[in-house]
Amino acid sequence: MFQRVGLSATVGDPNLLAGFLGGVGRRVEVVDVSGEKKYEIDVVLPTPTDEDYVDAEKFDATPEAVARVRKVAEYIKSARGAVLIFTNTRDGAEFLASRLKHHLGDLVEVHHSSLSREHRVSVEEKLKRGELKAVVATSSLELGIDIGDIELVVQYGSPRQTSKLVQRVGRSGHRVGQTSRGIVVATDFEDLLESEVIAERAMNRVLESDVENHENALDVLLHQVVGIALEAVLDGREVDLSDVLRIVKRAHPYRNLTEDDLKLVLDFAERHRLLRGLRPRRGSINYYFENVSTIPDEKKYKAVDESTGKPVGELDREFVFSIEPGTKIVLSGRVWTFVKREGDVVYLYPDYDVIGALPAWLGEQIPVPYDVAQEVCRRRAEALRALLRGEGELPVDLDGVNEEIIPEPGRLHIHIVGNKYVVVHSCLGSKGNEALGLYLSHALSGYVGPVGYRADAYRVLLIFRDFVPLQALDEVFKKPLPFVYKTLRNAVKSSRMFRFRFFQVARRTGLVSKDAEEVPAKLVDAYLDDLPGLEALNEIFVEKLDVKGLANLLKVVEREGLVVRRLSRPTALERPILEEALRLDFSFRGLSRESLADLVRRRIMNKYVTLLCLNCGWSMVTRASMLPDDIYCQRCGLRTLAVLKGIDLEKARQVLNKYRLRQRMSPEERRVLEKIQQSASLVLEHGKIGVFVQLAHGVGPKTALKILNKVFEGDDLWLAILDAEKQFASTKAFWD
Questions:
Q1: Which of 15, 381, 629, 638 has a CA 20 to 30 Å removed from the CA of 463?
Q2: Whether residue 519 is found in the same domain as residue 641
Q3: Is residue 725's pLDDT more than 70?
Q4: Predicted TM-score (pTM) of this structure
């Protein structure tokens, strides 16, 4: 007698897994020993030190980011054994590893799936031999690789799912009786709350139970039916429809399969010469063995700057299929317009207007579940109310936030910002908000033309062309569920995401060859309501959307109504998605001049500045908002203060010393001297306004002088700074 044994450390619904492994009608025993494994997980949000402010200027980073890297380095140095650091993206792993090398040199390595197999194996072997102190990795080291004893696991940023955190932290203390130790280094206020919720759930063994569960997958069913027909011929027997239905329905994912669905698959197989009735044809064997796996082939396209011919990164096949010529994307921290694809190369052209630009992630973000998002929103509301009462300390900008606008589960808040932006504080998690955004954008497009959207785990941003249609917004939230589902299906079918998924299904069913690079639009239209189209639709609904969460929200709206408010400017509740969607916080079209100027002012005021006295060498690091009206050197009393931006403090002092001693200087040193002298001249003449202008992105002393020659105060100053930043972004590609 054969037995099937399934082992896993991260099962949220054991009964579902038991049914999947055992099939229908078989007894499966669940042995749960998860309570014997102990986890210790802390969550921290590092606070910048004075040294972090100095390093932030040196590395052109925020003090908060420098503080996080410093904290991770401290954990590595204090650990007796090896430390694993996990990030959620490959770009994040590369960035963190490069920064940690400044602290630890070659004792740190990076490991992710985009690196060569030779590099990955080398890192794994070095880690096992104790030659490395730390490895920064993505999910590539999450499962099943023997890397020896790990003392501590650090998760950089929220793990986004409990099962992810359990799996990753479980790499430490990987022996019977040992405790697994982990630390989550949060990146901001919301990330902190999310990480705390997930860490608590991990230590209490509350794992995700609402997993992606594909039922009645039609492409897999087609493959199985062809296999049954081939096996019957080899055994010298006949099979009929009832035999196939009986065999297939024993599998848990197909327990509810209908005869009509099976007939649809058989009809497709006959039309495409895979079967004649339930007997194989000439192409059956090739089809069967060429499509054993449902895992799609991964392919990367080289992205090239068309203006220079230089490579600028890589794009996943799915992302390339989801965009079309003219689409703006963000890659390697820059904005580009997609021009064309030729073979394995994608051509991009530099752009600076980031309105609607899509982030070109390598791989997808891990979705935050519905339950986690709901709890985070509840805690966020509690924390904000406590802060408004003056209780507690958290790094949150409360300007514009009051009791009335704080969203929480049980009531849907909609905030209108300017005349084109609507932020829906829905807290449905990643998939639920994706479903909500897709539905709202498609439904509202029928009223006012195309409506763009972006979604994160806690809100949906709607982007209108001309104005926000309040009545239409109210109406679409009150539509019956059948209308919502139909609208969602139509929205998915008209998306480029659907076309790419259709392409994958078409390859698995033999409709197009394995070598095909794309699927003709006519083919998509022809099979929209046939096996490939239906399966593509089903996969998107299972993997990308949480329709159940959306339905729950609409019931809340039906019961409690909407809370709609107009905001004069975005608050800390809206800024995360506005800044993520628009990628740079100086490109908000549709906002009033006052709101736009206020956004620029806030950004500049939150920057840290290093000031150096050219007379005595005294220096100071402070936040721009903390500068006094009268700026002068605290040592000698003179006002000869230069803003050091992109110039190392010690380097500037060395140059000044050479200048005083009349020593020979290199051309580079002369450029540094000229720059700090020009900077000090601006501060001497214009005071702290001269500092503010020089803190703008891409604005040096010469550009700052041009700005200050035109305007000196008020909204005009901040908008002039914005124009200079735009000009810098638009021309940077040509002289980089």
A1: 381
A2: no
A3: yes
A4: 0.75
